[in-house]
Predict the structure.
Amino acid sequence: MCRGNGLVGEISVGGGMTKGLLEKLQRLFGRENVYYEQEDMLVYGYDSTPGIQGYPEVVVFPTRHELVQQAVMIAAEEQMPVIPRGSGTGLSGGCVAVNGGMVLGLSRLNAIREIDEENLTVTCDAGVVTLDLYNAVAARGLFYPPDPGSQKISTIGGNIAENAGGLRGLKYGVTRDYVMGLQGVLSDGQNFATGGKAVKDVAGYSLRDLLVGSEGTLGIITSATLQLIPPPQDKRTMLAYFRDVGSAAEAVSEIIAAKVIPATLEIMDNTTINCVEDFSAIGLPRDMAALLLIEVDGHPAVVEEEAEAVMAILRKLRASETHQAKDVVQAEQLTAARRTALSALARVSPTTVLEDATVPRSRLANTFAEIERLKQQYSLAVGTFGHAGDGNLHPTCLADEGDCEQMSRVHAFFDDLYNMVLDIGGTVSGEHGIGLAKQDYLRRQIGDGGIKVMRQIKDSFDPVGRLNPGKIFVE
C-alpha cells in the first residue's frame, strides 16, 4: 500500500475493548447492534476513498435518537472519539476512524417519520437511503431533487454531512437547498434542534447551515426536515456527441448564456464513453471525443421551447450527432448510463482515484485541456465525466494502489490540476467534501486565516475534539 502526499494515504489504528465496556454497550444497544470482532473492524475501516484506512475499537448501531445520545455520553466517559457513518460511500475519507474510537453507524436509524403534503416537507431519520426517500415522496406526487450518484445506497444523514450534489444540481441545487430543520446530538450528549417547517426563519445564527457540510465534526445529525416541491410536468432528454471536447464545453457555456437552465447537463470524455459502452452496451459511439447528456423539464410549453433552443445551439456548434429520447424508457436508459460512469471506470483497473474539481463554467475547456496535458505528462489513464452545467468535473485516474511509483504520479497529477483549478477561481470540492483526502488543498484555497476561523467554529461546538477528529483540518 502506498502512502499519499495530500491526496490519499494509509492510516491504520488498532485498538481494544474492555470487557466491561463491551457488556455495557451490548446491554444498551442489543448484541446484534454492537460489532467489535477484528473482521468487522476491517469492514468498517474504510469508505470509498482509495488508500485510506483506520480501524475503530467498536461499531454501534443505534435504532433511535435516545440511543445516539447515550452512545455519545458513553464515548465521552471513555474519552473515545465518535465517528458518525452512514453507508460508507464517501469519497474523501470522511467516515474513517483514523484515531480509533467508536463508529456510530446510523444506517439502522432509518424511518421516514412524516410526509407533510400541506407544508411540502418530509421528516426522516438520518439513515434513510436517498432513493428510498425520493420514491416515497414521489408516490405522494412530490419531488425531492437532490440525486447523488450513490443515491441507491447513500443516506440522508451522509448527504447532509457532505452537502451532496447530483445530476440535477444545475437547476435544482444541492442538499443544503432542501434542508429546513435538523435534530441531533452535540459532543457532550446534549440534544440540539435547529430550523423546522417554517419557510422563513432568521432567528439567531443559522446553525443549520453550519451543520450542513460539516462532515460530522460539529454534531451528529439524527433526523432532518427536508423541503419538497411539485414534480416537473414534462421533460425532454437529449444526447449530443462531439469530435472535440472544446466544442462540447463551448456548447455548455452557450446553453447557459441562452438563459436555458437544464435540469441535467452532463459530460463524458472518450475514455468514459468507451468504459460505459463496455459496461452497458447501449450503442454509444466509441470514436467521439465527448458526450453531452441534457435534460430540460418543467411546463410542457417551456420544455418544448427550451429543447428547441438547445438543439439549435448543438447544430450551430456542429455536434456530430444529436438525439432526443423517443420515450420515458429511453430517457431513463440514457440517464442510467451516465450514472454508471464511475462503476464502468472502476472495472478497468484495481484502483480508481476519483476527484471533484469544480471551475467556473466558462473555464471548462481550459480544464479539459489541462487534464489532457497532465495525463500525457504523467503517463496516466484518466477518464473524466461530471456535471458540466455546474463546472463540476470528476477526473478519474485508473491505477493500481499497489504500484507506489504509479500512485506517486497520480498524486502529482492531481496536485498540478488543483493548482490550476485554484488559479482560475475554482474550488477543490463541489460535492465530495474535504475529509482526510483534501486537507492540504483546502488550506491552499482558503488560507491560514480561513482555517483559523473554521477551527474556532469547530472548537465552540466540540471543545474536546471528540467528533470525527482528524477530518477537514491538517493536525
User: Anything to note?
Assistant: The mean pLDDT is 93. Residues 439-461 form the longest helix (23 residues). Residues 234-423 form a domain with the Vanillyl-alcohol Oxidase; Chain A, domain 3 fold (CATH 3.40.462.10). The longest strand covers residues 234-242.
